[in-house]
Specification:
Order of helices and strands: EHEHEHHEHEHEHEHHEHEHHEHHHEH
Structural class: alpha/beta
CATH class of the largest domain: Alpha Beta
Distance between the termini: 18 Å
Number of strands: 11
Bound molecules: pyridoxal-5'-phosphate
Number of helices: 16
Strand content: 5-15%
Helix content: 25-40%
Length: 380
Amino acid sequence: MELFQNHNSSGIRGCPEGTLDDVLRVHRALPGYAPTPLLSLDGIAGSLGVKSLLLKDEGMRFGLKAFKALGASYAVYRVLREKSGGRLEPEEFIGTKGRELADGLTLSCATDGNHGRAVAWIARLLEIPSVIYVPRGTVPARIAAIQSEGARVVVIDGDYDEAVRHAADEAKNKRVVIADTGYSGYTTIPWYIQQGYLTIFSEISCQLKKAGEKSPDVVFIQAGVGAFASAAAMFFNDPSDGVRLVCVEPRAADCLFRSAKAGDGIPRTVSYGKNTIMAGLNCGTPSLTAWPAVYKRFDLFVSMEDHWAKEAMRHLAAAGVVSGESGAAGLASLIALSRKKPGFLSKGLHLPDDARALIISTEADTDPDSYRRIVEVPCS
Ligand SMILES: Cc1ncc(COP(=O)(O)O)c(C=O)c1O
């Protein structure tokens, strides 16, 4: 495990006025919407150097096994709203008016699994086709999950970044590309996707308020291109509130870590020619629209080996939480820190003695065979 501490982390602008209300209205109107559970894992907190540990279980979101539909749905809503000249209410999105506006469109994106399933799900609700590009080596279970939403899946002979380029080319074929990563000349839709993820943090905040509990002292966010991390940065935009943010990546695809460590604010691409079991985080290039907020606001960047994720999955399984390889990454980094850098949270990150940590299980068993093989091994 490697760490990079950002001693110059600072506040950033929050999301534009009214955005969160808009996002929440869109999500509440979607079929199957319900806040996902916020669980207490205090039983294992002590051994990890914190007083309490909260887990938000996104494996339950919309029955899709991952959080990604929050971003894709909001982005597609905004596309249709624009098409309607601003006259599509959130409650009309998945209904006659939304379907009429969507008629004739085809949605497309690149994915390592979860985002593609989310885009295909929205396309199915709108009764329009979708074409989803996946990198070479995507496991059959993830491809089947995307196909189960009615999408055509195209396997690209290349990595995730190459799949993104293929999907981008498709815009020329009159497809609407719903990419979760921003790149030169393509920033609006990724920006909406980032805003869509705000629902997770808003729900957490309500759940804590209802329980009479205060905000967490530290939040661990797993990152692929950093869109989800940027939503955390937007929500916890003011560091004087006392919330530290930790960005967690697999060693084999630690583009945000390397970019932060370079220290000049310029995002870097990494390409080690290796894979990680954390497929959702297997991205080599930070999103252009997410990176500035993550670089400024995050306090710590962690690059870690895959075995920590396996261990975290076993602990979560023992606690009754089904969490996949990328889903368990937040807990994995906490375990790695407690073993390799004991005392770092209090001395390095200056967390209080009664620190409350928050992790988000961003996916359930999206590769069921791999999940079973990993959690069969007893916890160490
Ligand atoms: C399960 C899971 N967790 C986390 C992430 C990371 O999100 P982002 O790419 O926005 O950093 C992904 C991305 O696909 C994912 O599938």
